[in-house]
Amino acid sequence: MTQSSGWPDGPRGHPLLGHLPELRRDALGFLRHTRAAYGDVFPIRFGPREVLAVAEPAAAREVLVTKAASFRKGRGIQKMEPFLGTGLLTSEGEVWRRHRRLMQPAFHRAALEGMAGDIVRATEPLLGWLGEAARSGEPVNVASEMLHVTLRAVAAVLFGTALAEDDLRVVERELPPLLESTTNRVRSLVDWDLPTPARFREKAAERALDGIVNRIIRERRAAGGEGRDLLGMLLAARDEEGGGGLTDAELRDEVMTLFLAGHETTATLLTFLFLSLSRHPEARERAQAEVREVLGDRTPTAADTRHLPYLNACIQETLRLYPPAWLVPRQATRPVTVAGVPLAEGANVSVNIFLLQRSARYWPQPDAFMPERWLGQGRTPDAFMPFGAGARMCIGNHLALLEAALIAGLVLREYTLEVPDGGPTGLIAGVTLKPDGPVRAQVRRA
């Protein structure tokens, strides 16, 4: 396939498969090598589909902020719609703007303050399990434990006490296969929807989750709707520009989106955080000392997290090195230029957050874990955007950071997680960024 007119040079690739073989083998290694050879803006091909990769702050800002009106969500995100419906992640245009207006107040920092207690309570089972592991000497699978705790946290923040333990067990059982099937659909080059056993399993999982979510929405609506959890705030939200509140179907789509976006990404962040702290014991000891000094034996609050500068620096540095949402795909809805490169209507562009945040041009020693770089030093604008940028920046960014700080602080206050031999060093770049192997840690009392 010939290169689009006016596009920069890039690697040749296979005539039919494009760069899929290299991307399947080692996506991040291939992308880093290509950036080194061709610069911060370069084309790659997924089979016949050409994509302009962007790893430069000014160009990223064009796509996500200044020229955002010329783009829609990319093809991969569009393929999540069968499960997520028309929630914030997948919707476009006026539907997205209305939902964002209605939902934004529920995600302001002040609104999240009251949810800290729910997150702390959701972390208590994890602390108990880590205590058992410390006594028995059995290693824990860090990624698995972080998935459990963040799922419980997002369920508590969404539903408060409305989600019974039996319901939570169903969510824990059914959400992972849906996440896996969604990932496979996003990565597939074809859009077939065949009646395979996997597809039947996916539909069964979706029905089970829909049954729980729709039942709780009906019950809360019948009871008057309001509450201090996110669902209560969304039920009470009214559009100041008219149009009333969210319908039950719209609430379902937003709840499913929050489950997906607020669960796995935060779990991945915490997994990489504990892995990084294990590799840098001096940073871990400093974070533990800060947590003990600030929290003492008290139950932490949202206000406490603002007095943990070093722990927050560790979290920010983890987000820089390992952004869970490492790629932001977009599709041009009209002719537009990015970094001087002409894009026709329908052209695909991806903002590569991973490459952007590991550029030696903007980050000294870009591959090193250096939390100190977040303690008062100046940084290049738009060289750090783990939650995206512009109007479509992740609405749950403050919630994710609050969750990460509370969960990490509670764990570090009581326990040390030691990953033997440094743990897995490779990365898997799927829909989210993950370690290329299990992260197993020995637990001991701090």
TrEMBL record:
Cofactors per UniProt? heme
Q: Tell me which UniProt keywords the record has, alphabetically.
A: Heme, Iron, Metal-binding, Monooxygenase, Oxidoreductase
Q: What would be one Pfam family of this protein? A: p450
Q: Which SUPFAM superfamilies match?
A: Cytochrome P450
Protein family membership: Belongs to the cytochrome P450 family.
- Recorded superkingdom: Bacteria
PANTHER family reported for this sequence? CYTOCHROME P450 (PTHR24305), CYTOCHROME P450 12A4, MITOCHONDRIAL-RELATED (PTHR24305:SF166)
Please give the name of this protein: Cytochrome P450, cyp
Where is heme bound in this sequence? Answer: C394
What's one GO MF term for it?
A: oxidoreductase activity, acting on paired donors, with incorporation or reduction of molecular oxygen
